[in-house]
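Amino acid transporter transmembrane domain-containing protein: structure tokens wanted.
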Amino acid sequence: MTVMSSNDIKYRRSPRISHLPQKHDDYEPLEVGFNGASFSGAVFNLSTTIVGAGIMALPSTVKQLGLIPGIIMILMGAALTETSIDMILRFGRASKTATYSGVVADSFGGFWRTLLQICIVINNLGMLIVYMIIIGDVLSGTWSDGVRHSGVMEEWFDEHWWTTRCSLLLFTTVFVFAPLISFKRVDSLRYTSALSVGLAVVFVAITAGVAVVKLIEGTIGMPRLMPEVVDQTSFWKLFTTVPIIVTAYICHHNVHPIENELKDHTHMKSIVRTSLTLCSSVYIATSFFGVLLFGDKTLDDVLANFDGDLGVPYSSLLDDVVRISYGVHLMLVFPIVFFSLRLNLDELLFPFATPIAYDNRRFFLITLALMGFIFLGANFVPDIWDAFQFTGATAAIAVGFIFPAAIALRDMHGIATKNDRRASWVLILLAVSSSTAAICSDIYSIFTSDSGIKS
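Answer:
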């Protein structure tokens, strides 16, 4: 027979309460002198959650849609994201629940809470593996279509055992990720998040500067304003851009952890709006200047475009600055996404245990297991991009659009407005149609490429 201590009973949680203390004064402080997160710290943490790898995929998306529809879609994505976050926050307060999963459980029960947590875990794991793959590409290089693209460490120091992909990712894991993912409060990452946002702005500034110089010189022209639809396949392919835009704004899994640490919870709506405005500005600037600079040659990952001569003075230096700044940017995004991944996996596996912040052994073991899985995935899985596209069209859209809309339509507390219901139907219709089209297009592309290889 196990006897529970008073501390175990005190910190025992139900599925409705937060993975961490709901408010900074609910339990004994995890950090001495912590009096609650600031407005600016929360903005940087939420903005860093949003601006990850999406900044590299959006220029190609805008190229495919055309400049005008592309920018409209980015703005629409921000507006719909704000609406969906507002829904889960309002229904969370109505149900006295401090987690996204708790809001879903209040509306639909435990099965759907578990399904949401699985979606968040799948989405965040996929994102973090992709982040580590990109970091490896930047530092060590990669092969693409039989062509070797050298990483910055190989370019600077030639090939050695310590410039290999596995070694560099191991160093990054031990000396960068390990210290940053050891924090038990999301607010502890506010300074690295601010630096991460700053590095994203550096990328935008360099892209804009090079584009303006070449535009003045007359070596580039204006990009295509509208999409180029030549057949049925190209028409349906336009729908595959929606999951990319939705994934670029996914931050719902970190909204409640950030709110729970605030000094004043009433500021959360302004924090969300400020973060989305900042991120939308970065996305629009990146997309506009990226497509302006590279035109129809804009690659799916625009970072790959910075692997040659840009046609301006100090081109090689600018290429290195862009790649290094973006690589470090992803290193600093990693812990903020990992934070919510660990919390949701812990609640999924141990729904009635004490909060993970108060159980050092469980905190360490889950952290170690997740980092080991991500490291192995980034090093030894040959190609996860197709799988990542599927998760973007399913798990990400479910987390960002379907679950918030379903909560508002269910309206367990009678607080949904007519605008909430209209917005919910728009979210669901857009999510289902775009997901279906994106999945079908991805399957068609896979079978087409396989047929091409066999023939």
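The chain is about 70% helix and 0% strand. Residues 1-30 have pLDDT under 50 and may be disordered.

Cheers.
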